[in-house]
């Protein structure tokens, strides 16, 4: 007798007790990216919030241009610009409470800065000095993550642990469209949904995973639809609409905080600059495509709304630009200073308790440094 011939071992259809675990309808994202700017609903937006977003967008754009210039001057090894994506970055940095955690990717320096990280410290990784130039526990910002999507399971783990302890903490994890093709993305969503962890996933869909367009990565209707398969509601939002981004993220954070579980948000935006300063974007996209997206610039969209409400005065523009220039000047000045080097730091943060090999290597390096110092003193 085969396995299939055994009584009750095989059914051509699921047993009557089978039923969907989750109604998929509430999980489906919008048919079109949600937006506020340019609609009647924008009139209800808080003027103070609009002005705050504007000042941060202007500062973020200036940061991007200054950091890019620093790569050309040899002061940065690489810089992945977020020009054109500033609305996603700034909104992500502003919606969290002090007790919450941000888990950024390598392109999310502006989100970290909006969260309070020092602008120079945010570039330490990209300068090649340290893996991270700031204390993650001080700012509640995890290290800028270069490996794709590996920060997502970390965010879920932290959020789950906080929930088990009874701490009122939400984790916001950022990832690019390319990162959604990684196994870590799927593992993070599955665990977050099963555990109902207080975590928000923000996908910045900027059109390309380096040179690979989205159409060659997925056949899904949208990246936001991917949440349905895990039991996570998806949201599709215009990533260049700073007000819509702030609203959608705020709602998702509040839902997570009050026990509603995770949310997957896809922000449709565009990477105006190359992937990094080492990339030649002209090899895989046309200039006309880039110019079309420049017409949907997040700063210009917000400026139009501010003008229509009489909020964009000469003083507002001047103050925002002056603050951005002052930040850029401080950034140039501090980045032109050579960081002090301590060779023994190579062994300081590898293991909590040094291995015998590390102790041996540290002793060898210390002996070589002492010998060099003695030689200099004799001269």
Describe the structure.
By secondary structure, this protein is an alpha/beta fold. It has 2 domains: 25-335, Thiamin diphosphate (ThDP)-binding fold, Pyr/PP domains (Rossmann fold, 3-Layer(aba) Sandwich), CATH 3.40.50; 343-378. It contains 12 helices and 7 strands. It has a 5-stranded parallel beta sheet, with helices on both faces. 40% of the residues are buried. Residues 317-379 form a coiled coil. It is an enzyme of class 1 (oxidoreductase).
Q: What layout of secondary structure does this protein have?
A:
Layout: H1 47-72, H2 86-94, E1 101-103, H3 109-114, H4 124-127, H5 136-139, H6 151-165, E2 171-176, H7 183-195, E3 199-205, E4 208-209, E5 212-213, E6 234-238, H8 242-257, E7 263-268, H9 287-294, H10 298-308, H11 314-335, H12 356-378
Parallel strand pairs: 1-2, 2-3, 3-7, 6-7
Antiparallel strand pairs: 4-5
InterPro entries: Alpha-ketoacid_DH_E1_comp, DH_E1, PdhA/BkdA, THDP-binding
Protein name: Pyruvate dehydrogenase E1 component alpha subunit
Pfam family, one: E1_dh
Give a nutshell description of this structure:
The protein is of the alpha/beta class.
Order of helices and strands: HHEHHHHEHEEEEHEHHHH
% residues in beta strands: 5-15%
Alpha-beta content class: alpha/beta
Which sheet architecture does the biggest sheet show?
5 strands, parallel
Instruction: Give the overall shape, derived from the CA principal axes.
Output: globular
How much helix is in the residues?
40-55%
Number of strands: 7
CATH homology superfamily name of the largest domain: Thiamin diphosphate (ThDP)-binding fold, Pyr/PP domains
Mean pLDDT: 93
CATH class of the largest domain: Alpha Beta
CATH architecture of the largest domain: 3-Layer(aba) Sandwich
Measure the end-to-end span.
92 Å
Overall tally of structural domains: 2
The largest beta-sheet arranges its strands as: 1-2-3-7-6
Question: Whole-number radius of gyration?
Answer: 24 Å
Which spans of ≥5 residues are poorly predicted at pLDDT below 50?
Answer: none
The CATH topology of the largest domain is given as Rossmann fold
Task: Count the DSSP helices.
Answer: 12
Coiled coil: 317-379
Region (Disordered): 1-25
Protein name: Pyruvate dehydrogenase E1 component alpha subunit
EC number: 1.2.4.1
């Amino acid at each position: 007798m085969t396995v299939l011939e055994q009584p009750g071992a095989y059914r051509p259809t699921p047993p009557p007790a089978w039923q969907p675990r989750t109604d998929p309808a509430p999980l489906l994202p919008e048919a079109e990216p949600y937006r506020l700017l340019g609609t009647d609903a924008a009139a209800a937006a808080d003027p103070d919030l609009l002005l705050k977003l504007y000042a941060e967008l202007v500062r973020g754009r200036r940061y991007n241009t200054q950091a890019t210039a620093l790569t050309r001057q040899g002061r940065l090894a690489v810089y992945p610009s977020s020009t054109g994506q500033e609305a996603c970055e700034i909104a992500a940095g502003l919606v969290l409470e002090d007790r919450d955690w941000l888990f950024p990717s390598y392109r999310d320096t502006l989100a970290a800065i909006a969260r309070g990280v020092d602008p120079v410290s945010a570039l330490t990784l990209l300068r090649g000095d340290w893996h991270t130039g700031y204390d993650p526990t001080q700012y509640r910002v995890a290290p800028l993550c270069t490996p794709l999507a590996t920060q997502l399971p970390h965010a879920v783990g932290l959020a789950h642990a906080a929930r088990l302890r009874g701490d009122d903490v939400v984790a916001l994890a950022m990832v690019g469209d390319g990162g959604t093709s990684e196994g870590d993305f799927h593992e993070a969503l599955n665990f977050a949904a099963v555990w109902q962890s207080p975590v928000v996933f923000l996908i910045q869909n900027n059109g390309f995973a380096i040179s690979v367009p989205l159409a060659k990565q997925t056949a899904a209707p949208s990246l936001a639809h991917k949440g349905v398969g895990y039991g996570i509601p998806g949201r599709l939002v215009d990533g260049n609409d700073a007000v819509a981004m702030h609203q959608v993220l705020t709602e998702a954070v509040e839902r997570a905080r009050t026990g509603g579980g995770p949310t997957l948000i896809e922000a449709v935006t565009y990477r105006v600059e190359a992937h990094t300063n080492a990339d030649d974007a002209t090899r895989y996209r046309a200039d006309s495509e880039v110019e079309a997206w420049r017409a949907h610039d997040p700063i210009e969209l917000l400026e139009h709304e501010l003008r229509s409400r009489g909020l964009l005065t000469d003083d507002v523009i001047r103050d925002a630009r002056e603050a951005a220039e002052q930040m850029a000047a401080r950034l140039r000045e501090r980045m032109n200073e050579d960081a002090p080097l301590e060779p023994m730091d190579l062994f300081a943060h590898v293991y909590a308790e040094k291995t015998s090999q590390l102790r041996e290597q540290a002793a060898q390096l210390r002996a070589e440094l002492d010998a060099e110092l003695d030689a200099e003193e004799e001269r």
